Automatic annotation (TrEMBL):
This is Iron(III) transport system permease protein. Residues 86-282, 353-543 form the ABC transmembrane type-1 domain. Keywords: Cell inner membrane, Cell membrane, Membrane, Transmembrane, Transmembrane helix, Transport. One of its GO terms (biological process) is transmembrane transport. GO terms for cellular component: plasma membrane. It is found in: Cell inner membrane; Cell membrane. It comes from Anaerobranca californiensis DSM 14826. The keyword Protein transport does not apply.
C-alpha cells in the first residue's frame, strides 16, 4: 500500500515538473518572440517598466479621478467655464504659434541663407531669448508697459495694454520663437544645393525654387518647431497668470487654490484631451509625406544677396533681438542694481538659491540614472514593449506642471503620506516633467555607439545590465551629462509645480520671482531672475552645438 502511494506521489511530481517545464518553455518562447533580437536581462526590463509607469502615474490618476467628479460638476463646468477656457487657450495657442513660426522661419532664412554682416554672431544672439523664462519676460514688460510703467512715466500714458490678449500673445511670442529659429536653422544647414541647382536648370526663378523646393524640405523642421511652441503655450502658467489672462493651466491652479480638486481634475481631463487632439492633428497634417535627400554628394546651399532688402532685414533682426532680449535684460540689470544697493543679496537670497539647486540637482541626477536603462532598451532591444515604455516615459513632458503636481498630490496624500509635504515631491515632479530631456541627451550619444561593442561584451559573459553600466555608460557620458544639465536648468525655472508642492517655508528662486513681482518688489525679483538666466546659458550652449 505504501509503495503504491509512493509511486502515485512520484508520478504526480513528475507530471507537475513536466507541466512546469512546458509552461516555462512556452513562456520563454513568447518572451523571446516579443523582442526582435535576443531578450534583455529581466532586471533591465523591470527597472524600465517601473520607471515608465511612475512617469505616467500622474496622468493616469488625474484621468481616473476625473471620472468620479460627478455628472453635475461636469455639466456645470461644461456650461460655464470650459467653453471660455477653450476659447482663451486655443486662440492664444494659434496666434502665438503662427507668430513665432513666421518670425523664427524668417530669422533662420535671413541668417543662414542671406548675405548679412555678423552671421555667426546672430546665430548665437537670436537664440538667447530662450534662456529667459516667459514669466520673467512678463515681469519686465509689466515694468515697461504697465499702467504705471516706464512708458507711462515718459509719455504720460501707456500706449499698449500689456494686461490683454495681445499683450500675452506678444510676450509669449518673443520668448518662444527661438524653438522654430534653432530647428529651422539646423535644417537649412543640412540642405543640399543640388536640388535647387536642378530646379534652376529647369528654368525656375529664385522665388519659385524657395517655395517649391526649399520650403517642402524645411517643412518637417518648421512643423517640429511649431508643435514645440504650441505645447509650450498650452502648458504655460507663469506668463499668463502674471498678465492676468485665464487659460486652462491658470484655471486649474486657482481651482486647486480654492481646494476644489475634483473640478481641477475635470479641467485637467479636458486639457489632456485638447493636447492629444493637437498632437493628433499635427501628425495627420504630415500624412505619409516624407522628405528625404537622396543625393550622396552634399553641397552647401548658395548664399543669396538681399540687395535693396538688406537694410530692412537688419532692422527687423535688431527689432526682434531688442524686444526679446536687450530690453528685458536692461530692465533686469537696472532693478538688480537697485536690489543690490538695497541689500537684496542677503542670506535669504542664498537660502532660496540653495533650495533651488538642491531640488534641481536631485531631479537631474535621478533623471540621468533612470534614463539610461530606457535609452538602452529602446536602442538595443526594439519591440512594441519598448515603444510603449518610451511613450509612457514621455507622457509627463506634454503636461503642464500644474497637472503633474495635481496627480502627485493625490497619489502621495493617499498612498505615501509619510513623504507628503516634503521637498522630495518637488524633485519627483521635476523628474516626471523633464526626464525626456535626459532621454534625448542619452539617445543622441548612444546612436553613435556601434551595437557590436555590446555584442562583444555579452560574448564575454556580461549580462545586458552590466554591459550598460560598465561598457556603454563611459562612452555616452557626455550626452548623458548634457541631458542632465538640461533637466537641472529646466527644474530651476519650473514655477507651477514648485508653487503647489513646496512645503511651508521652502521657497526657490522661481517662487521668489513670482511672489516679489506680484507685490511689485522688482528690486527683489530682478537678482533672482538674472541668476536663473545666467545658469540657463549652460544648456543653450549644448543646444547650439547640437543644432
Amino acid at each position: 500500500m505504501n509503495n503504491k502511494l509512493s509511486s502515485n506521489n512520484n508520478l504526480s511530481h513528475k507530471i507537475a515538473r513536466s507541466n512546469l517545464r512546458a509552461i516555462s518553455s512556452l513562456s520563454n518562447k513568447y518572451w523571446n518572440k516579443l523582442w526582435k533580437r535576443e531578450a534583455p536581462h529581466f532586471l533591465l526590463v523591470l527597472i524600465t517598466t517601473v520607471t515608465s509607469l511612475v512617469m505616467a502615474l500622474p496622468l493616469f490618476y488625474v484621468v481616473y479621478r476625473s471620472f468620479f467628479a460627478g455628472k453635475d460638476r461636469w455639466m456645470r463646468l461644461l456650461d460655464t467655464r470650459i467653453p471660455s477656457l477653450l476659447n482663451n487657450t486655443l486662440s492664444l495657442t494659434i496666434v502665438v504659434t503662427f507668430s513665432a513660426t513666421v518670425i523664427g522661419v524668417l530669422l533662420a532664412f535671413l541668417v543662414e541663407r542671406c548675405e548679412l554682416p555678423g552671421k555667426k554672431m546672430w546665430q548665437w544672439l537670436l537664440a538667447l531669448p530662450l534662456v529667459i523664462p516667459p514669466y520673467v519676460g512678463a515681469v519686465t514688460y509689466i515694468i515697461v508697459m504697465g499702467p504705471r510703467g516706464w512708458l507711462f512715466q515718459w509719455l504720460g500714458q501707456s500706449p499698449f495694454n500689456i494686461y490683454s490678449f495681445w499683450g500675452v500673445a506678444f510676450v509669449l511670442t518673443m520668448f518662444t520663437y527661438p524653438y522654430v529659429f534653432l530647428i529651422t536653422s539646423s535644417a537649412i544647414k543640412k540642405m543640399n544645393a543640388n536640388y535647387e541647382n536642378a530646379a534652376r536648370s529647369l528654368g525656375l526663378s529664385t522665388g519659385e525654387i524657395l517655395l517649391k523646393v526649399s520650403l517642402p524640405l524645411l517643412r518637417p523642421a518648421i512643423g517640429a518647431g511649431a508643435i514645440l511652441v504650441a505645447l509650450y503655450v498650452l502648458s504655460d502658467f507663469g506668463a499668463v497668470a502674471m498678465l492676468r489672462y485665464t487659460t486652462f493651466t491658470s484655471a486649474i491652479y486657482y481651482q486647486m487654490g480654492s481646494y476644489d480638486n475634483l473640478s481641477a481634475t475635470v479641467l485637467s481631463m479636458v486639457f489632456i484631451i485638447l493636447t492629444i487632439g493637437i498632437l493628433f492633428l499635427e501628425s495627420k497634417t504630415k500624412g505619409k509625406q516624407r522628405y528625404v535627400q537622396m543625393s550622396s554628394t552634399f553641397k552647401q546651399v548658395d548664399i543669396l544677396e538681399l540687395k535693396g532688402f538688406k537694410i530692412p532685414a537688419i532692422i527687423f533682426i535688431f527689432l526682434i533681438f531688442g524686444l526679446s532680449f536687450l530690453l528685458p535684460i536692461t530692465v533686469l540689470l537696472y532693478w538688480a542694481r537697485q536690489g543690490v544697493m538695497l541689500g537684496a543679496l542677503d542670506s535669504r537670497f542664498w537660502v532660496y538659491a540653495l533650495n533651488s539647486i538642491k531640488v534641481s540637482s536631485i531631479a537631474a541626477i535621478a533623471s540621468m540614472v533612470l534614463s539610461l536603462p530606457i535609452v538602452y532598451m529602446k536602442s538595443r532591444y526594439p519591440s512594441r514593449y519598448t515603444t510603449i515604455i518610451d511613450k509612457l516615459s514621455y507622457s509627463g513632458y506634454s503636461l503642464p506642471g500644474v497637472i503633474v503636481a495635481l496627480g502627485i498630490i493625490f497619489l502621495f496624500n493617499q498612498y505615501i503620506p509619510w513623504l507628503y509635504g516634503s521637498y522630495i515631491l518637488i524633485s519627483v515632479a521635476y523628474i516626471i516633467r523633464f526626464l525626456p530631456q535626459s532621454l534625448q541627451g542619452g539617445e543622441s550619444s548612444l546612436s553613435l555607439v556601434s551595437p557590436r561593442i555590446d555584442e562583444g561584451a555579452r560574448s564575454l559573459g556580461y549580462p545586458s545590465w552590466k554591459v550598460l553600466f560598465k561598457v556603454i555608460l563611459p562612452l555616452i557620458a557626455p550626452g548623458v551629462l548634457a541631458g542632465g544639465a538640461l533637466v537641472f536648468v529646466s527644474s530651476l525655472k519650473e514655477l507651477p509645480a514648485t508653487l503647489i508642492l513646496r512645503p511651508p517655508g521652502f521657497d526657490t528662486l522661481a517662487v521668489r520671482v513670482w511672489v516679489d513681482a506680484g507685490e511689485s518688489l522688482y528690486h527683489m525679483a530682478a537678482p533672482a531672475s538674472l541668476f536663473l538666466i545666467l545658469v540657463s546659458l549652460i544648456p543653450l550652449k549644448w543646444m547650439l552645438n547640437k543644432y
